[in-house]
């Protein structure tokens, strides 16, 4: 029988704690739960009030991996849910609002993915995102070069950019914007991706076409669409190692000379949060949001 744990007055059954989820390092489910519990202070503000899509991998990244957007069967009645519009019609999704709901969701073994808009204003984005995805043999090193160009271009438009690793091969760039229709944010992001390709044609591609991407950085602007989601800051990823989508400093981006310099695992995040706090905290402050040009 799964042990029952009390989290802030909520009883949660935590199952299969000894299961190894990341065979490359022996990282267990208990360690996954510990990671989320100890990073909750910085993670929860980025989840709160945003409908969550779960990318679940209950048997590790080498097992079955699947998306769950609707409220999973067996969700406790104390977990907050909300009806949100979808292309195929409205659906009910989970909101991870507090530590008990975070630990319940973490027990499902999941990546957390959220849209660029809050649940109270569906389709009204309050942040902009670029997913910089390198095509082999390009790596995150080339992504950093593109990120620096985009930072300057966004700054020229009055928007301050903040980087984080994708937790996979690339880099995410985020900026807080004053609420605007997702379509407008997406159009603006596409225009910047096109401009980046024109400025760095040997390095950047703005189209998803696979044949165009080897050796280049795909500047994916499409995650600004209302229906799309992006890996939430601090989420673990379903990779061979327990890699995290980790906020990084611009100094780290500027000095990146090898992929391993921007590859952070769960064990790295405690010391980083202690040293830096939440590097993405300005995204949560409306005073840091700029208007789209």
UniProtKB/TrEMBL annotation:
Domain of life: Bacteria
Keyword terms, alphabetized: Ligase
EC assignment: 6.5.1.1
Positions of the DNA ligase D polymerase domain: 28-279
Record-linked Pfam families: LigD_Prim-Pol
Database matches in CDD domains: MtLigD_Pol_like
Enzyme class, spelled out: ligase
MF annotations from Gene Ontology: DNA ligase (ATP) activity
Record-linked InterPro entries: LigD_pol_dom, MtLigD_Pol-like, NHEJ_LigD
UniProt protein name: Non-homologous end-joining DNA ligase
Source organism of this protein record: Streptomyces broussonetiae
């Amino acid at each position: 029988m799964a042990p029952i744990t009390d989290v802030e007055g909520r009883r949660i059954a935590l199952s299969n704690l000894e299961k190894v989820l990341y065979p490359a390092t022996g990282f267990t489910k208990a360690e996954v739960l510990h990671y989320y519990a100890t990073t909750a202070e910085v993670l929860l503000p980025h989840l709160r009030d945003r409908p969550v899509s779960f990318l679940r991998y209950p048997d590790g990244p080498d097992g079955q991996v699947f998306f769950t957007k609707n409220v999973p069967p067996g969700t406790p009645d104390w977990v907050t849910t909300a009806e949100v519009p979808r292309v195929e019609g409205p659906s009910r999704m989970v909101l991870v609002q507090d530590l008990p709901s975070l630990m319940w969701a973490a027990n499902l073994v999941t990546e957390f993915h959220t849209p660029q808009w809050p649940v109270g204003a569906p389709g009204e984005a309050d942040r902009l995102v670029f997913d910089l995805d390198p095509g082999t043999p390009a790596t995150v090193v080339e992504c950093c070069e593109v990120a620096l160009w985009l930072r300057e271009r966004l700054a020229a438009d009055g928007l301050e950019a903040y980087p984080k690793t994708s937790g996979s091969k690339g880099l995410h760039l985020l900026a807080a914007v004053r609420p605007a229709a997702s379509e407008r944010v997406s159009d603006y992001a596409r225009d910047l991706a096109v401009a980046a390709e024109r400025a760095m044609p040997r390095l950047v591609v703005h189209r998803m076409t696979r044949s165009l991407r080897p050796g280049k950085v795909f500047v994916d602007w499409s995650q600004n669409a209302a229906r799309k989601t992006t890996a939430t800051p601090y989420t673990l990823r379903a990779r061979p190692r327990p890699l995290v989508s980790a906020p990084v400093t611009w100094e780290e981006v500027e000095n990146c000379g090898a992929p391993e310099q921007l590859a952070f695992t769960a064990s790295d995040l405690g010391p980083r949060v202690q040293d830096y706090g939440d590097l993405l905290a300005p995204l949560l402050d409306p005073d840091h949001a700029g208007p789209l040009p």
